[in-house]
């Protein structure tokens, strides 16, 4: 894809801390006062990795500039500027606060700006806080198409999901295999799947298997089987569950599906605190940047040892808060997760009962809980839906250091960490205490049995619930009337709940309008030319009278548009009175703008896309889809499974004429292949039917 030029004036980031007030009353001329306090996370414009920022404040043709703070992206000014308030500009006057990077030779670089409406400011009298810096007006690019290209790899997977009855045999066979595998009466299907997966598809297969067995209520038994398989292949306890095996990937997937709500409650407060504080934290002397840390006091620059000492105290504070949350979380961890960790703990204890391996059962639990779940979420909160945006460089470093400390606690070995990274030694007392606390936590976690208090049944359940969404959008609602010539959109607060899509002027307004979700027939995008925006969607619904009604929603960005489209389509996935086609345009001046048909009731000119949604962690389980994906994988590896099965039999010294138990395994494998062939034939029949329909339409 060809790259296009980005205007530097659009590439802004950071926030500025301001206090703005209107002073004076009565006969005293009123003044507009702007106090510029500080800024943070500014863009780095100079070669030295920083900027030389100053502030330019404009109002009513008058401009003031602050002093220049050299080599800092977190400058402090504490300067005030006053303007005489022009009463004639009360409705249209704007106060502009711009941040610039000062350059001695070349022109100054724009770092962002904030605009304030004076009319609103007079009503509030004073406004103070952190304000996001916005971009300047974009300029036309002169270099479009000449800046090289970006190579992307995209994959569209279009699956035809058959009715549930088609998947029942393969689902029952796999479930029966998991339940009976300990008795040895069935082929080791899970072992064969494990042996025939590759590094490229192992994560996807693990996801599908976990969701399939969750839907069958057998995920605990499935994980127990693959724990046994992994333990049977492991002779060195220090490497247990450290590779990317099917067992490791399946447990990872299970925690993300079953434990995401738990993770949010556990990590949410500490992650939010780190993002909001944006403190400079660094323990490695080779990476300490004095200019990033700022001043310790008036005219006194902080030393390297000052920064490391403060960072150590701050990290210990973060770590202490996190460990306290972990200990408290034993009371609300989902019961199913407790049970899975309980059986893992017991399996490892059985496999390595020797006294010198007494820590291994704890490390087996922490290898998943800390190293594959909590630590990755700390390092990348956005990927685990803990934050809407990725962290900046400063916050990322803080999160990384905290994650390192959690990993060290999870490994339960302070000496190895300190030998590799000696600068972590200042955290050793806190880490040692954390190891003790984590052992106590695991002991509580794995002792939560089904026979305990009924309070356990009120623990947080799997988060596969109803999709809910809310926020401000621009709306226009139309029935039979044509579209007005002027912009029809008005700002409303839109709320999607279990049964309704409602909207009102404010979040807490008592008066609101709503659409019943079962009455929604289509949720689709609108052509850009219709409203001059590519981020408009339409919700088509039917009234009790049978009359059709369309609600247009204008979103701020393509991401917001896609999230609303996806959320509404999922909420209406079980609707029966849906449309098969729709108009992507609008009905205006007696015709549709998309296809130029003249009747408003004319059939749509484009297919609806009810099933096109985003994949998100809170999606409900779809057993038929998971079974279809498992079928596709088994179909692709069935020959490899057969070969692997006979290879393993030969390695184990099993002969063809062995016991009837072995014959049952062979029969079970044949049954699986027969089921896969039946599914293949069913798909072929659906494809043939579709081709016949298309041919008929073409001939007509």
Automatic annotation (TrEMBL):
Domain C2 residues, every copy: 12-131
InterPro entries: C2_dom (IPR000008), C2_domain_sf (IPR035892), PH-like_dom_sf (IPR011993), PH_domain (IPR001849), Ras_GTPase (IPR039360), RASA4_PH (IPR037777), RasGAP_CS (IPR023152), RasGAP_dom (IPR001936)
Keyword set, alphabetical order: GTPase activation, Metal-binding, Repeat, Zinc, Zinc-finger
SMART domains reported for this sequence: BTK, C2, PH, RasGAP
Domain PH, residue spans: 466-573
One Pfam family named in its UniProt record: C2
Superkingdom in the source lineage: Eukaryota
Residues in Ras-GAP domain copies: 201-411
GO molecular function, one term: phospholipid binding
SUPFAM superfamilies linked to this entry: C2 domain (Calcium/lipid-binding domain, CaLB), GTPase activation domain, GAP, PH domain-like
GO biological-process terms attached to the record: cellular response to calcium ion; intracellular signal transduction; negative regulation of Ras protein signal transduction
Official protein name in the record: Ras GTPase-activating protein 4-like isoform X3
Organism in which the protein naturally occurs: Carassius auratus
Gene: LOC113081511
